[in-house]
Amino acid sequence: MIGIRSITYNATRDYTDSQQLRTILKCSELWDTLYEPHTQRINLPESYEPLNLKTLRQTLTVCDYSSVRWVNTPLNPKNGNAAELAKNALDIVSLSGRAFVNFIGVDDGVIAPGAFKTYANLNRQVAGLDRSGVNNFRLGMSYNIGYDCPFFPFTRSKGDELSFTIALEMVQDVNTALKECGKDDLVGIREATLKAVGGQIDHIEELAHKVEKETGVPFKGFDFSLAPVIGNNGSIVTILNGLGVYNFGHTGTMFATSFLTDILKELARTHPSVGFHGVMYSLLEDLDLCIINNERGVTLEQFTSLATMCGCGLDMVPISGDVTPEEIYTCCMDIAAVSCKYDKPLGVRLLPIPGTKRGQKIRTSIEGDADFIANTRIVPLDVNLVPSQGTNFNYLTY
């Protein structure tokens, strides 16, 4: 059965209004009786100035009285105050394990002044908040994202009205459909996949409209992205195997990703939709991808290449703790180039692991949020190294 990965409540700019918070609580209770979603979340409108932590705490208290698990805070440094917002972001991540931060690097094709350099330093600071490096799970830099997407942290609420959106967990059903139809032709595989998920999506949509009618909160749509699930048959890699691709990142991976994306876009055309509608290659969230990385390794270049077809970019990739800001910066530049060239939303979520050094074959030891995060070997930093002498980081202006 298709799972609901998240019910995301997109708050208005008056997000601490008591009536709005009570309405979210009512929606949360109703969904608990209807479908038992994996998570429920609150997505705040983007802010161009530092958030008041006292105000944010008011919203976080909703988590204590409901099934709402996380709150996302989008910060947009388009006005040139990247350093100030980065300090605020560090405070937010430190404030609560329920708080996510979306640091917006590119908005509508325009790079925020100083955003890349600032995020590179912020990424390393957040890594140092504990020994496992897990806190960067709750920090990401986004590129050309839309509004009201249910995938954290790469989203922002439009802020005009309280609404909700839904992310699905379809990977297990797609895997089952591929096994049942066997080595069929691509047309047959496409039809079998759409048939396997179509009726279930229709049912969830009916429930969404039921909640909409009972609470007055509009349903804005689904994000049909294929996101991995920690569990049996929950890997994107297994789907690639079903399509005849057995060597992730090499020949055939690009086509299979495009083929799957086309199916997701078809679902988005026939149902209310928001967000990415892409294949999510999130390393630490995909057990089989973690195994491949342990056995033969995956590379940042493979993920960057697949970003032209997939839905996330460099997501949940553990790297060595001695990474330099310059190296993180160059990774951000590549994903920005892909995002702007193809006009597609993408993100970067790198996890430097404190105490580790490049070249060491060390596995992560992350324990928090185990229903979303697995463990794997640190991905090598084969990046654009900056010479050790005569380098001035000040020339990195974005």
Overview of this structure, please?
With 398 residues, the chain is of the alpha/beta class. The chain has one domain (3-385): Alpha-Beta Barrel (Anaerobic Ribonucleotide-triphosphate Reductase Large Chain). It is built from 11 helices and 10 strands. It has helices at 18-34, 53-64, 82-95, 115-127, 171-181, 186-215, 236-242, 253-270, 287-295, 300-306, 325-342, and strands spanning 3-10, 39-43, 68-75, 99-107, 110-111, 139-143, 163-169, 219-223, 313-320, 346-353. Strands 1, 2, 3, 4, 5, 6, 7, 8, 9 and 10 form a 10-stranded mixed β-sheet that branches. Helix 1 (18-34) links the parallel strand 1 (3-10) and strand 2 (39-43). Helix 3 packs parallel to helix 4, helix 4 (115-127) packs across helix 11 and helix 5 (171-181) runs antiparallel to helix 6 (186-215). It is globular, with a radius of gyration of 20 Å. 49% of the residues are buried.
